Amino acid sequence: xxxxxxxxxxxxxxxxxxxxxxxxxxxxxxxxxxxxxxxxxxxxxxxxxxxxxxxxxxxxxxxxxxxxxxxxxxxxxxxxxxxxxxxxxxxxxxxxxxxxxxxxxxxxxxxxxxxxxxxxxxxxxxxxxxxxxxxxxxxxxxxxxxxxxxxxxxxxxxxxxxxxxxxxxxxxxxxxxxxxxxxxxxxxxxxxxxxxxxxxxxxxxxxxxxxxxxxxxxxxxxxxxxxxxxxxxxxxxxxxxxxxxxxxxxxxxxxxxxxxxxxxxxxxxxxxxxxxxxxxxxxxxxxxxxxxxxxxxxxxxxxxxxxxxxxxxxxxxxxxxxxxxxxxxxxxxxxxxxxxxxxxxxxxxxxxxxxxxxxxxxxxxxxxxxxxxxxxxxxxxxxxxxxxxxxxxxxxxxxxxxxxxxxxxxxxxxxxxxxxxxxxxxxxxxxxxxxxxxxxxxxxxxxxxxxxxxxxxxxxxxxxxxxxxxxxxxxxxxx
Length: 479
Ligand SMILES: NC(=O)C1=CN([C@@H]2O[C@H](COP(=O)(O)OP(=O)(O)OC[C@H]3O[C@@H](n4cnc5c(N)ncnc54)[C@H](O)[C@@H]3O)[C@@H](O)[C@H]2O)[C@H](O)CC1
Ligand SMILES: [K+]
Prior knowledge:
Bound molecules: ligand LP7C6HRI, potassium ion
CATH topology of the largest domain: UDP-N-acetylmuramoyl-L-alanine:D-glutamate ligase
CATH superfamily of the largest domain: Ribokinase
Structural class: alpha/beta
Strand content: 15-25%
Number of strands: 16
Shape: elongated
Largest sheet: 9 strands, mixed
CATH class of the largest domain: Alpha Beta
Number of helices: 15
Strand order of the largest sheet: 10-9-8-11-12-13-14-15-16
């Protein structure tokens, strides 16, 4: 089962893997034509009722595959209003092929005559809200037709995210849906088949640029809507927490705080005026800081534990005491990871170990990415956390869903890149589910590293990544 949001991610991921949308439309149209052939014999009359989006485009393609039938293509609206380039190209192809195509500019004038089969290709996963005109009246006409109705992808008027309808919807006898079943179709009184349109499994398995669609920026947003991140770390090291916090800002968080021992607070602040530093009494994090941390954390959307914290027992005890009392979202990295296997917490945890750290947590690893993915998935389920295990192929799993990330390069073994990753993941965890936050964190951090190396060659340092994060996340040129 796949929602329309998820479908849009997978569709763009397929494109990133070299399978363009036009090719997918060709397969969708072919699958729709196959369904027509299963319902009606050659020579039968087929009325295709098409909208102006890609759902309609599928039917333009189907018409080309139905040369043995008496086909009429009805476009609802003017051809200039066809909303996508690939649908328009397929519309134009119909004219050249001299296939009977008509435009219906007045919804009351749609005349299907008495076809042997009607194909509903008005709206698919792009529908929002109740059917408007001319689609609403056309749906009535289709429902009144005395012949079988085949819906392309989803019956028009059914919301492909929820399976619900807000007003009138096409009553289909048969649905040919693409790639995977859509919500609600099973509850319909219709025969539903899933057409394989050639989207490779890799489009779901690997994190690709389509995943970035999960990050939409609403223009009405306020400060704080994209998250407040608190990085807890520093003591033996000062650069690490500053890197993580700046990475969180560069990847969209609105505010980044660093809670660190007071002895290093000035130094941490010195790295950037964009950071808000919260000094903690003492030279190393210890249990006496926990109440203060809990108070600060209660105002945050995500807490990142670990960067530059060190492995002093008293600091790890403090992390444990914090997590025992915390019920929010935390990213756990570096030495703080040791605490995770034994802690009793209600917090939602995203852990970012490299393979050595995974083993010290009690997990196992393997050289083959698919074997590793299986091991990581079961370990994530056992710990009840989301794991992002770093490697040439990063493995991300919440124990049920498992993804692989291939961005990044050998130049990124340099110190500090893990702190950047923890910060990016923290920013993502403010606005996304843990599995998506970790997947996009891994993708973005690696992509930033690839951009730096493409521009300058090897020799990157962690601060270079900060400058490339925006491009990795938002630049159109990233392909
Ligand atoms: N990877 C894939 O799944 C593929 C899917 N294909 C097909 O494409 C459609 C989705 O296409 P899209 O262009 O995104 O949207 P639609 O065609 O469903 O509709 C967009 C169109 O409709 C207008 N609109 C939206 N809501 C309403 C409404 N309530 N009333 C009237 N009009 C409405 C909107 O303004 C747009 O103009 C998918 O279902 C598949 O059939 C491709 O084949 C490629 C592969
Ligand atoms: K449809």
